[in-house]
Amino acid sequence: MKFFIDTANLDEIKEAYDLGVLDGVTTNPSLMAKEGISGEENIRNHYKTICGIVDDKVSAEVIATDFDGIVKEGKALAKIDDKIVVKVPMIKEGIKAIKYFHSEGIRTNCTLVFSAGQAILAAKAGATYLSPFIGRLDDIAFDGLELISQIVHIYQNYGFETEILAASLRHTMHLVKCAEIGADVVTCPLKVITGLLNHPLTDKGLAQFLADHAKANKG
Ligand code: G3P
């Protein structure tokens, strides 16, 4: 399972990369705005900087919602760096654009996915990645993880090559459950990745080991 970090914050990206387990980055317009990044030039430069930090895929989202606009913006984003994956919303014009990008060899991440039907459509169009939002489904009392299971099952039935990129993860259990279910990728905030380190018995056990070592080696 690949780990992507879901942020546009450079310090968090560097911290996750330094851990040695990061496979990529996903961003969205809200995350870029949160970092105060605005204007075409600044946005482009920020993506360049992110691509300079990580070894692999960086999802950059289009703002346009019409086919021509999505294609124009997506092509410009893809030219920034080979690592860029064009993130396209799950709308009619988006699906047409994903199909077009697929024929042009441009990688895509179909975002804002909340149903199995949308997942089938994106795979048919040739999306490289599919981003179902688990946490936002949970927020409205639907089972986000159940959707991931459903999509894994459907994609296996037909050998769809689209990778399931579980998004909108809120805690480490989401991540562990995604691994059990068989999501190809998870994208999550830094705290979810570093949260995997934590177990009270690890802390207690290490403290005991160090104390015993110190006792046996004193003087
Ligand atoms: O980037 C897409 C997704 O991961 C958003 O997550 O926490 O805003 O629902 P969240």
UniProtKB/TrEMBL annotation:
Swiss-Prot/TrEMBL catalytic activity: D-sedoheptulose 7-phosphate + D-glyceraldehyde 3-phosphate = D-erythrose 4-phosphate + beta-D-fructose 6-phosphate
Superkingdom per UniProt: Bacteria
Record's keyword terms, sorted: Cytoplasm, Pentose shunt, Schiff base, Transferase
PROSITE patterns: TRANSALDOLASE_1
InterPro entries cross-referenced by the UniProt entry: Aldolase_TIM, TAL/FSA, Transaldolase_3B, Transaldolase_3B/F6P_aldolase, Transaldolase_AS, TSA/FSA_arc/bac
EC number of the protein: 2.2.1.2
Pathway in which the depicted protein is active: Carbohydrate degradation; pentose phosphate pathway; D-glyceraldehyde 3-phosphate and beta-D-fructose 6-phosphate from D-ribose 5-phosphate and D-xylulose 5-phosphate (non-oxidative stage): step 2/3
Active site residues according to the UniProt entry: 87
Cellular localization per UniProt: Cytoplasm
Family (UniProt): Belongs to the transaldolase family. Type 3B subfamily.
Function according to Swiss-Prot or TrEMBL: Transaldolase is important for the balance of metabolites in the pentose-phosphate pathway.
Name the record gives this protein: Probable transaldolase
